[in-house]
Specification:
- With about 160 residues, the chain is of the alpha+beta class.
- About 25% of the residues lie in helices and about 30% in strands.
- The strands form two sheets. It has a five-stranded antiparallel beta sheet with strand order 1-7-2-5-8. Strands 4-3-6 form a three-stranded antiparallel beta sheet, with no helix packed on it.
């Protein structure tokens, strides 16, 4: 998978309703508490990280997924010099609006996680493999400029 260069930017850049990043930092960054007006799906791949969302801290294991609602205050606490690898997907509400028109409310998982005050998902092995494969496919198509690549990324 292609790797992106991490920045402390907490705003979306493009016209798209989502952004996908795959970060690998050999020297883990210092990240302050922050919030942003979009949803975040955080897929942890490696490192030594405790992640705090709205005052609740989660000790992460590779494969953990975090769901951060828009405006949740959060940050990773990186505990060692191990490489810190993760996939971050930012989703604006308008991304979900387009899907709601078809009858699917995929934002409900973020609302449910916030309501239950439990934002970590620990998928089983087959789901984890499927998620890794999807992320690899998204990363590959995101860098591809062929006709239909952006549609595949969106799908």
């Amino acid at each position: 998978m292609n790797k992106d260069i991490w920045t402390d930017r907490q705003i979306m850049l493009g016209e798209s309703a989502f952004e996908f990043y795959h970060y690998l930092d050999d020297i883990p960054p210092k990240v302050e508490f922050h919030q942003h007006p979009f949803y975040e799906l955080f897929f942890f791949l490696s490192g030594d990280v405790n992640y705090t969302i709205e005052g609740k801290t989660y000790k992460l294991r590779p494969g953990d997924i975090l769901l951060t609602n828009s405006l949740d205050i959060h940050r990773p606490e990186i505990g060692s010099d191990k490489p810190y690898e993760r996939i971050v997907i930012w989703l604006e509400d308008r991304f979900f609006e387009q899907l709601r028109a078809g009858g699917d409310d995929l934002a409900s998982c973020f609302a449910d996680a916030a309501r239950k005050d439990y934002r970590r998902i620990r998928p089983d092995q087959s789901s984890l493999i499927r998620m890794q494969n999807l992320c690899t496919h998204i990363s590959r198509e995101q860098k591809n400029r062929a006709l239909g690549s952006s549609t595949l990324v969106y799908a």
